[in-house]
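Hi there,

I know you've been waiting on this one. I reran it after we fixed the sequence typo, so this is the corrected version. Both the input and the resulting structure follow.
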Amino acid sequence: MCELFGYSGNSEQELADWLSPFRARGGGTGDNPDGWGVASWGAAGVALVKSPEPGYASTRFAQLASTLRTKLAIAHVRKARIPPVPGMLNTHPFAHACCNREWVFAHNGLVPEVISWQPAGALCQPQGDTDSEYAFCHLLTAIADSYGGGDRSNWIARLAKLSEKISTLGKFNFLLSDGRILIAYGHDRLHHLERTDRQGRRAIIATEALSGDAWQPFAPGELRVYRDGALLAPTTTAYATAPAARRGI
């Protein structure tokens, strides 16, 4: 059911050690053959490359995985559910503008009911048909009037609250970035790996472990915010502290 990859570091690094095995999850070692996409940030802003073809068989993805150097990245391999066919407009990650920033979002899970939500003053309109992109627009709408203020915790708290609400509709794991920070929300299936060594500080996020390192699972309903590889804000929503029966465990 789709897989996610995220990277945040304090210096530009090659991502081949993680992005190459992640590429294989796109229809090779994982059942996610319905598209792939990579967003990465540099001096010119965000570069978004994607295709509805299987990631494991894509020569473009292979080249990108082996050569990409960046401080910040989000990648996705898709298992098509809503709609149940590949297509460019429905291939993650998605990009929309908000608050004078370009935001990028990728999702793992199913929250079909979110498509029928009609929040007042919707900030963006999905270009495709996925529940994922609808959820993305709802998140941006929720934080638009508080983002950019002096207190980051205000809009992060709003984001966490709405993430928890959307997660009650099904399964909702996602990566989100404004080009400066990486936000990762783990509803039920996400892992993180944090390292500091002579190469610098970095945090890697993935649906499933991509190496033999000591990857740590997110707590259910945990939202983690990174900047330059450093953890700024771990937030545990009420979902994480609810009794197991309420979480469907």
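Quick highlight: The chain has a mean pLDDT of 91.

Best,
R. S.
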